[in-house]
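call fold(seq) -> tokens
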Amino acid sequence: MPAYEIEGVVPVVHPTAFVHPTAVLIGDVHVGPGCYVGPFASLRGDFGRIVMEAGANLQDHCVFHTFPGTEAVLERDGHVGHGAVLHGCRVGSGALVGMNAVVMDGAVVGERAFVGAHSFVRAGFVVPPRTLVTGSPAAVRRELTEDELAWQANGVRTYQRLAQRCRATLRPVTPLPEAEPDRPRLTTDARVAVPLHRYRQARQASSP
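ret:
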């Protein structure tokens, strides 16, 4: 991965974490045990400290940055969707930040809360634990159900397993000109994880 020191401060990546080779780490960045950092993510610890605690994931094209002299933290098992921006904020343990959402300076996303896709969490806003916020600016919509929390926890585990799979088997290759006749499929199928709306439908269908 491209990793750069600045003023003698070098990024730290735990041996059990996976950081994609195209992600960029600069300066005071700490990637904890079992974390996953996706392709083209940018973690810039050039002004203040950036921390990913154990089991957290930061997906493709995410940006993680902060103001001078401050610290931004993605707590244990935090889950950040594709293209999201975290700036000078704290995302609580087991929380989810949806795709292309923005969480601003001094904001706190409570434990196991959900920030909806494309939402804008303004500076200093506090998202209560186990609630859903959506919109621009984001507002609290409701408390999360136990089914939604279970779905989120499964998503976190899926990315933790992905970190292990990538560490074990991800390698650069030259693409094939055509698919092999006996081409294998990946071991991840719909039994591993499904979109939330399908998960809700399946749970409703199985309810008495």
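The chain has two helices and 20 strands.
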